[in-house]
């Protein structure tokens, strides 16, 4: 499609209600459209399905929806290989439907956040197809990283960089006469060629895309792989020792911050606080915090906590480190237990090794399902009590476990690029169960990934009837989080209740206690129990559970207007 025509496909700006710092304490629900709800019966989730379930999301109490990429895509990487940012993939619906969804959600008080993937596009993107056709040395190729290979015949890869998905980071092209041609860079799959952010077209295009969606009323953008887009134009090999900060060939380069400052300036042009949320995987807290300086991103995902094992010491250290690295720049922390890439907590926390690392994922890893479910409920209350914003991945509010899928149905490139060793990420992307006792459990048509036969108890309709269900635990937690001022602006003060206990006070009146040990523990002095992930045992907090306590009677505690 002609780029100029796309740029002109505009819409009247949709006003987003102002709410000072709404994103600082927001509860944001991640929608993986393909697996949320199927509105037309073809087995693939779509926007019609999301629109039909907005009432459910309203009852859950979330403040915003984050949609993983819903744009036209060959789906080589679950939609993160974007072909056209100004349209909706026909499998999901139409642009007009997306505009209606944004408006309908907003009418219910729910904002919309969309995904932007600045590091790369689809190999089917118009620009890349033009670059392939134009040949070596052409202006079209300057928008990407085309490069001759090493050696007299050019058969050696240009750099020794390592792919985020394992395997090579360069693919060789074929010239029109059939001879081997230049190589092109892709930090992910060959179907996701990396963009050259030194090219003005690339910067201008993404700025136009931001305005395109802000004009349609989205409240923010989530920036995928935000530390990767800028490359060292020399394309050096990886250094033998750690590079100086900001000087790695393709990660966390200093030039990135100029890009995000320009994006922030665009967001600030709009009313209603449009936000930038970064996916920033960095171990260095000082480098991480740079992305959150005034005039850059509003928030960035905190992945450190999500990867921790079920350990009071490890989790406390992660929480302390996270709050400390955000404090100098005045940015709120974000808390998340999982997402569309990570093993679900109900499975992860039941394993002998309850931490998470992509490189350790393997088929057949055993888990204690009951223990994992208890711990996932406890973790849900723990993170909901922490200061900052909270992200919930669809299905975690139902306590869904990870599904070990048959190899023949797996689509995730991480599985194939590992030589079949890694089960990939599709196990956390199985379509949601909504109702009924057998697949498709009210999802729609026959799901694009198979649902387990024993998921009836996880279905929304079953959990609606069970006041002790995980769904109701999430609803109650979100409602309390919104109502109690301590959860909005109360400081966090640690309480020392034992080596296996994570306990802290928020503000003046609210205490959260999590027992990560093997025996019940006594509770600190309190007036009443506000919410618990499991029943108390003779007044003691059971292992693998969390409780929220009020220190004063309700008549003496302030509340926030809803």
3D structure, described in words:
With 562 residues, this protein is an alpha/beta fold. It has 16 helices and 16 strands. Strands 9-8-7-3-2-1-11-10 form an eight-stranded parallel β-sheet. The chain has a five-stranded antiparallel β-sheet with strand order 12-13-14-16-15.
Q: What fraction, in percent, of the residue positions are helical? A: 25-40%
Radius of gyration equals: 24 Å
Approximately what portion of the residues adopt beta-strand conformation? 5-15%
Structural class estimated from helices and strands: alpha/beta
| Strand order in space, largest sheet | 9-8-7-3-2-1-11-10
Number of strands: 16
Largest sheet: 8 strands, parallel
Tally of alpha and pi helices = 16
Task: Give the overall form.
Answer: globular
Beginning-to-end CA distance, first to last residue: 45 Å
Low-confidence stretches: 1-19
Mean pLDDT: 93
């Amino acid at each position: 499609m002609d780029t100029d025509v796309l740029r002109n496909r505009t819409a009247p700006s949709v006003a987003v209600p102002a709410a000072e710092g709404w994103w600082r304490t927001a509860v944001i629900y991640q929608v993986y459209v393909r697996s949320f709800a199927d509105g037309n019966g073809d087995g693939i989730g779509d926007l019609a399905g999301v629109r039909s379930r907005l009432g459910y999301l309203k009852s859950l109490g979330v403040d915003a929806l984050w949609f993983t990429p819903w744009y036209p895509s060959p789906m080589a990487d679950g939609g993160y290989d974007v072909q056209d940012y100004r349209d909706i993939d026909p499998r999901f619906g139409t642009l007009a439907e997306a505009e209606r969804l944004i408006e309908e959600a907003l009418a219910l008080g729910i904002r919309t956040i969309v995904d932007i993937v600045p590091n790369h596009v689809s190999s089917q993107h118009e620009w890349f197809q033009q670059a392939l056709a134009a040949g070596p040395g052409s202006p079209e190729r300057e928008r990407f990283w085309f490069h001759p290979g090493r050696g007299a015949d050019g058969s050696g890869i240009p750099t020794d960089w390592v792919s985020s998905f394992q395997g090579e980071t360069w693919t060789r092209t074929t010239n029109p006469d059939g001879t081997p041609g230049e190589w092109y860079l892709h930090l992910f799959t060959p179907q996701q060629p990396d963009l050259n952010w030194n090219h003005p077209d690339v910067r201008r295009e993404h700025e136009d895309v931001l305005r395109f969606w802000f004009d349609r009323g989205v409240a923010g953008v989530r920036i995928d792989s935000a530390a990767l887009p800028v490359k060292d134009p020399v394309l050096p090999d990886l250094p033998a020792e750690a590079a100086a900060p900001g000087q790695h060939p393709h990660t966390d380069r200093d030039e990135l911050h100029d890009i995000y400052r320009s994006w922030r300036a665009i967001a600030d042009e709009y009313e209603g606080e449009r936000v930038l949320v970064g996916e920033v995987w960095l171990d260095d807290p000082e480098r991480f915090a740079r992305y959150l300086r005034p005039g850059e991103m509003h928030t960035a995902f905190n992945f450190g906590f999500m990867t921790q094992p079920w350990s009071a010491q490890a989790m406390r250290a992660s929480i302390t480190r996270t709050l400390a690295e955000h404090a100098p720049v005045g940015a709120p922390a974000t808390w998340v237990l999982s997402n569309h890439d990570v093993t679900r907590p109900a499975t992860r926390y039941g394993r002998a090794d309850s931490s998470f690392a992509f490189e350790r994922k393997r088929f057949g890893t055993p888990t204690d399902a009951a223990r994992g479910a208890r711990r996932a409920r406890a973790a849900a209350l723990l993170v909901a009590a922490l200061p900052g914003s909270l992200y919930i991945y669809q299905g975690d509010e139902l306590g869904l476990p990870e599904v070990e899928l048959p190899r023949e149905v797996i689509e995730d490139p991480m599985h194939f690029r590992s030589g079949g060793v890694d089960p990939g990420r599709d196990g956390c992307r199985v379509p949601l169960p909504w109702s009924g006792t057998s697949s498709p459990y009210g999802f729609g048509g026959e799901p694009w990934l198979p649902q387990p036969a024993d998921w009836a108890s996880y279905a929304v309709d079953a959990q609606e009837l069970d006041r002790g269900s995980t769904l109701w635990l999430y609803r109650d937690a979100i409602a309390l989080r919104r109502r109690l001022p301590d959860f909005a602006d109360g400081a966090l003060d640690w309480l020392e209740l034992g080596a296996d206990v994570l306990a802290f006070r928020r503000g003046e009146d609210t205490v959260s206690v999590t027992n990560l040990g093997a025996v019940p523990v006594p509770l600190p002095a309190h007036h009443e129990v506000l919410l618990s992930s499991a029943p108390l045992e003779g007044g003691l907090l059971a292992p693998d559970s969390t409780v929220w306590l009020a220190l004063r009677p309700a008549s003496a505690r302030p509340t926030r207007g809803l």
